[in-house]
Amino acid sequence: MSHRILRVYADTSVFAGVFDAEFEFGSKLFFDRVTAGVIRIVISTSVEEELNRGPEHLRHLYAEMMDEAELVETSPEARSLSAAYLSHGVVSPRYAVDALHVAIATTAGCAAIVSWNFRHIVSFHRIPLYNAVNALNGYNPIAIHSPLEVLEYGEG
Question: Would the pTM count as exceeding 0.90?
């Protein structure tokens, strides 16, 4: 039986994780699932800008993954939803870029967002808040996980 390809938004931390001893294993396994065609990564122009400002090895990884990725614009809907996260106190304005990542993933219709940001994105107490604001604004809930948590998708 064939499985649907899982569309997953990957934030900048997943790419950077490949070069970080703590997150290298999980990031590499995640990207292996991407290149195997099980996961389709969605990358926003915001992530693209962050990666292009990074060191050469990060830019090189991004370039390698672009054949496997779907690039989405940061839409007015995503900016509006991100502002709603801030106005509801899901995160403070200081972490607006984190709220924007979740909003882009949500408005792009991704099944999930993956991140190594356990403080402002993959956070036990913030996930229900993001999804409550999604519901208030007419969006579906979004799954929010670390890259390791989506690796078993499609394995039966």
Answer: yes
What residue type is 44 in one-letter code? Answer: S
For the chain, how many structural domains are there in total? 1
- Quick check: is 156 in a domain? no
- CATH value at residue 89: 3.40.50.1010
The three-class DSSP label of residue 1 is: coil
- Return all residues near 93 (Cβ < 8 A) that are at least 6 apart: 86
Q: Tell me if 85 sits within 8 A of 91, measured CB to CB.
A: yes
Question: Confidence class of residue 1 from pLDDT cuts 50, 70 and 90?
Answer: very low
58-109 per-position pLDDT tens digit: 999 999 999 889 999 999 999 999 999 999 999 999 999 999 999 999 999 9
% of residues, the chain, pLDDT over 70: 96
Two tokens, residue 65:
């993954």
E-strand spans in 5-145?
Answer: 6-10, 39-44, 69-72, 112-114, 143-145
Q: Which domain holds residue 97?
A: 6-150
Q: Is the separation of the CB atoms in 44 and 73 below 8 Å?
A: yes
